[in-house]
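User: I'm new to structure prediction. If I give you an amino acid sequence, what do you actually give back? Let's try with this one:
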Amino acid sequence: MLFDMDGTLVDSEVIWDIGIEELAVTLGGTLDPDVRARMVGTNEGASVILLLESLGLPLENAPEHQQWLRTRMRELFAQGVAWKPGARELLLESRAAGLPTALVTSTPRELSDIIINQLGPDNFHLTICGDEVEEKKPHPEPYLTAAAKLGVDITRSVVFEDSLSGVGSALAAGAVTLAVPSEVPLPDDLEVTRLNTLEGVDLAYLRTLRD
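Assistant: Good question. You get back a string of structure tokens that encode the predicted 3D arrangement of the chain. For your 211 residues, that looks like this:
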């Protein structure tokens, strides 16, 4: 069982909205909703680049702005992050059943650990963060790495994702992929199993996907 974090397990994309909007204001601009939609599922660095490009600002200052955003996100995440509906129940059922379980996120370790500590580190056999792989989502490396470290067959692993970038990563890795769109709708022509929510999703249902 491989879980994305932002927008899948926790309702943290709305918190990212706050941090990125505040960064845009400090830079003398505003955050375009279409630009924000393109950020969902990417990593912190890519989001800052997209913001700077949209505001017509020089990219050489991106590291400075990225550090500002990371500092602000530490503060925001420390205030608490809410579970997505049904996510906690499914995660706990998976762990109780002894299934190899991993969290695979594009968020860097420094920020991820704030949320992981709220979710319960013992609920995961493994956590893979965005700054711990060479290639980030939508490249398949994050999920292939998680499966290899868990010692499981990726083609018989179930991945839960919410974004186009994350779904693309999981599909490219060859995993059984469930998309639970959160902040941004997925393209209609994307061939993936879709769920409106994780509420009511249990192991009995997941077994039907692999039979």
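You can read the tokens as a compact description of the fold. Here is one thing that stands out. The chain has a mean pLDDT of 95.
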